Amino acid sequence: MKDSELRNRAKEFALHIIAVCDHIDSRKGRSVIINQIIRSATSIGANIHEASYASSKADFINKFHISLKECVETEYWLEIMLGSDTISQENATSLLQECGIIRRMLVKSINTAKGNG
Questions:
Q1: Which CATH number describes the domain made up of 3-114?
Q2: pTM for the complete prediction?
Q3: How does DSSP classify residue 52?
Q4: Which of 10, 18, 47, 74 has CA 20 to 30 A from 105's CA?
């Protein structure tokens, strides 16, 4: 798996999250959730990008671990958005599937970098 595929997926995912959030009526008290999911979703790709310039293997692995944590947090916020009827089942399913793909790619990349697979 190429690192650029992961970077591209993470970037496209963040852009999709932003687009979905742009259509949510923040007057319904959802602005905190919207801010949180945008922060976590964009942080996934930012940390992957930053890992490209890591000062050591340990730094590289750490950046990917941060991305993984942000990915898991994003899944949580998507579940909250679905449970609060902030987004449709269709949007949630699509976004959760893509987030899961990115999560699995991150785990595989971390394991490979550690020499575990």
A1: 1.20.1440.60
A2: 0.92
A3: T
A4: 18
Give rounded-to-5 percent helix, strand, coil for the chain.
Answer: 85, 0, 15
Q: How many CB atoms lie within 10 A of CB 6?
A: 22
Q: Which residues of 52-63 are buried (b: 16+ CB within 10 A; e: fewer)?
A: eeeeeeeebbbb
CA separation for the pair 72, 57 (Å, rounded)? 23
Structure confidence by residue, pLDDT tens digits, 28-52: 778 899 999 999 999 999 999 999 9
Beta-carbon contacts of 9 under 8 Å, excluding residues fewer than 6 positions away, are 98, 101, 102, 105
Query: How many distinct helices (H) and strands (E) make up the chain?
Result: 4, 0
CB 79 within 8 A of CB 93: no
Residues 6+ apart with CB under 8 A from 54: 60, 62, 63
